[in-house]
Q: What sequence folds into this?
């Protein structure tokens, strides 16, 4: 029994962390129409940033700043934001598929740089990170439960932050730019500035997810920032419903469950020769899910709702 | 006709404006003045360069050469958002609603300097934002009411008719309280009753001091409501005068009607 609960906590922790990243992508794609094809770069920047800032010093490895954990996590988010800001300045004029290709390239470059820079852990990854409060809470179930609670609080905070944001005039501005940049500009708005703001804000949120992910495993390596993670995160958003934060979270839990279940089922029931290809088969399945969803239900399971400027409405209804 | 401004000080003044696409001269050395308080009709056959001229005036395209002055200020090459804030509003030949936003939200977008438009606004400036939103919403409903779209406020803007979209575009720019409004074929593809509404609104706004430049193919519309009339053909200005003169002008008949008939 405790085994099952323990597994569920583990599952929910990872799914909640990924939900945060999907919410970040939803701000960029769902609300602003920015096609970020390199989610892992920002996720990774947050992860590496957090571990380098919060870790103990290791021979030949940058870091060991041993900052208090929350500062390290915040620092990871700042790293993601800075990377996004630079990438954004360079690419934000690129629209749609061009932006997707450019950001995809950035993510691949990020992984390559991490893999080949020994000071950043190289292929081995970053080690020497102590999970916060481990002394007090131990290494077992209590710790995992406490960490899950921490992640859940951050997920809820992120969700509420974004809900409030997209129902505000800022959200209206994002949607207008998503719907028709030219028209928005003819009404006095500055699309490039708004696109950059949204890109950085979404990436900072991805950085938070990355920081939590690295904290959970007390480890990050180039293996964790492969393009497949970008595709998984996209699949979660598309299945859940771009433009709908609730959908983004639901989609994450659904796809992550399907991913874990398919991995488990393949390794359990498939013939040995097939098992060798579990990973590849799962990649193909993710591809099918994305394409299938775009064909049959492009708006996702929870389609975007028409926002009718609630803040003003509730206050000013005659 | 009632002039709000001084004849000597045009609200919009363009000098020797050209716009080329590669070898092709879409707008060719056009100079003209628009005076405050007028409704200017801009006519010319298909492909004459009317929309391109609008795009240059509103900053969507940079002129290849020439200058544009708005209210005496050189605004050549200014971006569309800057020009809107200086009081220049425009609508599009093919309507560009924010399709997946409600009609009301489309209109509430326009006001400048909204506190809530900054990413921290909804958190650090929440109280001010709510006040602004209340004001903006009230004004948006008034403007929607004015253009007869109030009953559609909560509809998705992509779902209303083409004519209603043209009214919506007018409502959107009215929120910014522009001095000069450029309308690109407001009556094209719009049913007669909506066209009548639109004309009434234009004339009402004009009486309140707003200046219009209207691209229109419907000659009856132009003859009845526009004065002066300016005609373009193959990128060049070929006529400028009153509606009456336009009707009897041989050059114009040749350039415009000739091209129209063949
Ligand atoms: N971006 C562009 N690139 C190349 N050619 C263009 C571009 N925009 C317009 N043109 C060309 O410039 C010419 C003028 O086009 P414009 O749209 O200004 O005409 P118009 O007078 O508005 O015509 P209509 O009455 O059909 O709307 C046309 O021949 C058009 O094909
Ligand atoms: Mg045109």
A:
């Amino acid at each position: 029994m405790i085994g099952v609960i323990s597994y569920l906590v583990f599952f929910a922790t990872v799914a909640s962390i990924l939900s945060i990243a999907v919410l970040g992508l939803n701000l960029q794609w769902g609300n602003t129409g920015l096609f970020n094809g390199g989610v892992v770069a920002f996720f990774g920047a947050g992860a590496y940033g957090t571990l380098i800032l919060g870790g103990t010093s290791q021979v030949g490895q940058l870091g060991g700043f041993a900052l208090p954990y929350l500062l390290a996590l915040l620092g990871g988010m700042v790293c993601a934001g800075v990377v996004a800001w630079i990438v954004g300045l360079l690419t934000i004029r690129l629209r749609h598929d061009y932006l997707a290709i450019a950001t995809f390239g950035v993510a691949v470059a990020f992984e390559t740089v991490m893999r080949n820079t020994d000071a950043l852990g190289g292929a081995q990854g970053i080690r020497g990170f102590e999970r916060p409060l481990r002394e007090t809470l131990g290494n077992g179930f209590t710790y995992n439960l406490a960490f899950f609670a921490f992640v859940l609080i951050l997920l809820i905070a992120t969700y509420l932050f974004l809900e409030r944001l997209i129902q505000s005039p800022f959200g209206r501005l994002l949607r207008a730019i998503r719907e028709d940049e030219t028209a928005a500009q003819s009404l006095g708005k500055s699309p490039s500035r708004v696109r950059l703001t949204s890109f950085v804000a979404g990436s900072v949120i991805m950085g938070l997810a990355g920081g939590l992910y690295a904290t959970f495993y007390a480890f990050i390596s180039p293996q964790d920032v492969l393009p497949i993670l970008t595709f998984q995160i996209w699949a979660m958003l598309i299945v859940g419903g771009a433009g709908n934060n609730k959908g983004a979270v639901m989609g994450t839990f659904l796809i992550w469950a399907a991913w874990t279940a398919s991995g488990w089922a393949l390794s359990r029931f498939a013939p040995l020769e097939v098992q060798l290809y579990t990973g590849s088969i799962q990649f193909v399945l993710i591809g099918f899910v994305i394409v299938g969803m775009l064909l049959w239900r492009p708006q996702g399971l929870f389609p975007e709702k028409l926002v009718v400027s609630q803040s003003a409405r509730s206050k000013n209804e005659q | 006709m009632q002039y709000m401004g001084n004849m000597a000080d045009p609200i919009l003044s363009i000098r020797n404006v050209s716009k080329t696409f590669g070898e092709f001269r879409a707008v060719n050395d056009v100079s003209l003045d628009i005076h405050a308080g007028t409704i200017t009709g801009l006519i010319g056959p298909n492909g004459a360069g009317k929309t391109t001229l609008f795009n240059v005036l509103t900053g969507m395209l940079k002129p290849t050469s020439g200058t544009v002055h708005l209210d005496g200020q050189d605004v050549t090459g200014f971006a569309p958002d800057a020009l809107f804030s200086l009081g220049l509003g425009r609508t599009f030949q093919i309507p560009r609603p924010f399709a997946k936003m409600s009609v009301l939200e489309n209109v509430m977008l326009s006001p400048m300097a909204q506190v809530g438009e900054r990413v921290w606004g909804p958190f650090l400036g929440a109280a001010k934002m709510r006040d602004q939103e209340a004001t903006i919403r009230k004004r948006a409903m008034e403007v929607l009411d004015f253009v007869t779209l109030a009953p559609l406020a909560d509809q998705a803007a992509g779902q209303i008719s083409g004519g209603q979209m043209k009214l919506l575009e007018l409502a959107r720019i009215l929120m910014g309280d522009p001095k000069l409004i450029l309308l690109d074929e407001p009556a094209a593809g719009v049913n007669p009753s909506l066209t009548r509404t639109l004309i009434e609104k234009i004339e009402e706004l004009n009486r309140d001091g707003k200046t219009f430049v209207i691209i229109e193919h419907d000659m009856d519309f132009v003859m009845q409501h526009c004065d002066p009339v300016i005609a373009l053909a193959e990128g060049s200005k070929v006529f400028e005068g009153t509606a009456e003169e336009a009707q009897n002008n041989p050059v114009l008949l040749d350039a415009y009607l000739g091209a129209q008939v063949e």
Q: What stands out?
A: The radius of gyration of chain B is 19 Å. The longest strand of chain B covers residues 24-34.
